[in-house]
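Query structure, 598 tokens:
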């Protein structure tokens, strides 16, 4: 137990909340019921009874002490030096002084309405914790206290690391930075906690200290107030339309608005810039010269941000909930039945070139990752992605994976191209010299489709990629459109011939979202098409091997026509008898609330 009696009150790194019930001139902090108490539990650790808008903190200008107001509660800031970069916390006294500390207001505050305000004991709004759709499970944390401690720790950490490297400019690895940062954070929180106990007479609990330490660590090394949402495995998407307009979608639930992740848009942009610096995969930045930012986050999540070209900063974060899926997992999730799973596994073993298509968020990458698990473990493969999402080099099944990630430029254009930029299309020739048996492209978005199709045509087979397309029969035209971006010499007929020669199978993934009518999101394979060469009018001919049966109320893929490559699949272990059932292996039609079989 720390001795808190020896710490001077002037060292308190927080603000003291002074409020009084109706009709009283003064008193201690408000109790949950609104009555004054002499020594209550720290109110900054109590979660508000009901969510509401964050109170606005205003700091009155003037020399020396300043008076702030939060939802009608007067606050007083003592004069003294403030750490650099702390805006709005007061100004330094002419003759020096103590750091920002709590002093009682000289005038009795105005009556405070009940229920008690949502301000913290520091007089500031508490850090929102991602809602669990039930009672909160973690103490709330004052974001301004966390930011001030973060700045103090950052300065101390910089001094320590400078001494460690001897001023030679050599870098320190991430583990060392975090280890030393964690120790400094614990010391800073201990000082703050002692000061709080000296001022209020009641020490914060261990849970409150731990929550504050985690908030400071997140600000310094992770995603700040955004981190709790990233840590919630049930959240699939995070949409940010400015610092105070944040939405999340959870599994089988519609979008829901949540508390802000920053106090201002400038702070949000600063957070995004910190994440870009932590990326570690080449030059990534967000500024006037580079108004877009795409990067991967810890845990395999993908972030896309826009600023400067939009009125406010806009951010979209997507999570792959199925991180290390197999085709058996896809069967459990209802994405495929056991018949399609066996068919796709045989296609991978038979080295068929496969393109997985669908709209955004339907599960293309998860299915691609599951199909890659069927590749023999000793094969040497390469993955090419704009941001790592497949993570095949970390899952452990494949022993020889060469992962390649595209690199963004630095904003300067040379001959019409960003300096330092490396696209997926430019990485493919280098990949071909790495003695790879297969190449997997995480997502084909533009002209890189041409070198990808050439790899499929010239290689041993067994390569895979994903492509955005709204419907399975739009895929051929979608490929042709992207091929035309490759160069002026490309034509429709050449694009069609490349497609017919390169692709063996097209697997289309669909989603039916019924969360708006009380249902769930159904993600499933709706079509498996075989490309059988050039057909009429020089277009690739398609054979529907699996497809939906609307007459039976089944939107999921069930057997239709045996493929021309059936003998190849049988040699790879596929049981052709599985294609005889009109219902596939589904035990019942898809349970839809609207449509389907009733």
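Result returned for the query:
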């Amino acid at each position: 137990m720390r001795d808190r009696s020896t710490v001077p009150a002037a060292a308190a790194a927080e603000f003291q909340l002074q409020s009084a019930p109706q009709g009283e001139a003064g008193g201690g902090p408000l109790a949950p019921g609104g009555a004054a108490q002499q020594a209550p539990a720290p109110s900054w650790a109590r979660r508000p009874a009901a969510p509401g808008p964050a109170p606005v903190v205003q700091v009155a200008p003037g020399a020396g002490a300043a008076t702030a107001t939060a939802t009608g509660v007067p606050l007083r800031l003592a004069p003294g030096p403030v750490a650099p970069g702390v805006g709005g916390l007061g100004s330094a006294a002419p003759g020096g002084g103590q750091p920002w500390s709590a002093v009682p207001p000289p005038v009795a505050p105005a009556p405070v309405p009940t229920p008690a305000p949502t301000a913290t004991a520091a007089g500031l709004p508490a850090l929102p914790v991602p809602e669990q759709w039930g009672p909160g499970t973690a103490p709330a944390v004052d974001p301004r206290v966390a930011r001030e401690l973060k700045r103090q720790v950052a300065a101390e950490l910089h001094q320590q690391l400078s001494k460690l490297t001897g001023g030679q400019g050599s870098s320190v690895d991430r583990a060392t930075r975090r280890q030393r940062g964690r120790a400094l954070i614990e010391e800073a929180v201990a000082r703050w906690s002692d000061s709080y106990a000296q001022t209020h007479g009641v020490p914060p609990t261990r849970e409150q200290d731990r929550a504050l330490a985690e908030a400071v660590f997140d600000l310094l090394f992770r995603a700040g107030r955004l981190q709790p949402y990233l840590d919630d495995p049930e959240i699939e998407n995070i949409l940010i339309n400015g610092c105070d307009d944040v939405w999340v979608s959870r599994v089988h639930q519609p979008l829901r608005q949540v508390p802000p992740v920053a106090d201002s848009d400038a702070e949000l942009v600063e957070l995004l810039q910190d994440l870009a610096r932590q990326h570690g995969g080449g030059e990534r930045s967000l500024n006037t010269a580079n108004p877009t930012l795409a990067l991967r986050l810890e845990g395999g999540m993908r972030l896309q941000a826009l600023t400067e070209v939009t009125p406010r900063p806009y951010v979209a974060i997507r999570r792959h909930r199925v991180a290390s899926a197999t085709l058996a997992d896809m069967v459990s999730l209802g994405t495929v039945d056991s018949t399609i799973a066996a068919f796709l596994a045989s296609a991978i073993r038979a080295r068929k070139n496969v393109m997985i298509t669908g709209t955004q968020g339907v599960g293309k990458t998860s299915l691609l990752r599951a199909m890659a698990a069927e590749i023999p473990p000793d094969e040497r493969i390469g993955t090419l992605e704009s941001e790592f999402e497949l993570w095949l080099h970390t899952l452990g099944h494949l022993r020889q994976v060469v992962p390649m990630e595209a690199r963004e430029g630095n904003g300067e254009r040379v001959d019409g191209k960003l300096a330092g930029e490396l696209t997926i299309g430019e990485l493919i020739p280098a990949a071909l010299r790495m003695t790879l048996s297969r190449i997997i492209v995480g997502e084909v978005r533009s002209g890189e489709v041409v070198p990808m199709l050439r790899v499929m045509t010239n290689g041993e087979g067994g390569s895979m990629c994903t492509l955005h397309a709204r419907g399975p029969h739009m895929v051929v035209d979608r490929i042709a459109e992207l091929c035309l971006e490759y160069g002026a010499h490309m034509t429709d007929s050449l694009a069609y011939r490349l497609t017919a020669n390169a692709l063996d199978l097209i697997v289309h993934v669909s989603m039916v979202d019924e969360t708006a009518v009380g249902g769930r999101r159904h993600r499933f394979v709706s079509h498996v098409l075989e490309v059988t060469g050039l057909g009429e009018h020089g277009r690739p001919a398609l054979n529907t091997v699996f497809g939906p049966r609307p007459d039976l109320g089944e939107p999921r893929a069930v057997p239709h026509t045996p493929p021309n490559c059936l003998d190849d699949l049988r040699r790879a272990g596929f049981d052709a008898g599985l294609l005889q059932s009109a219902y596939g292996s589904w035990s019942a039609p898809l349970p839809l609330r609207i449509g389907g079989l009733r």
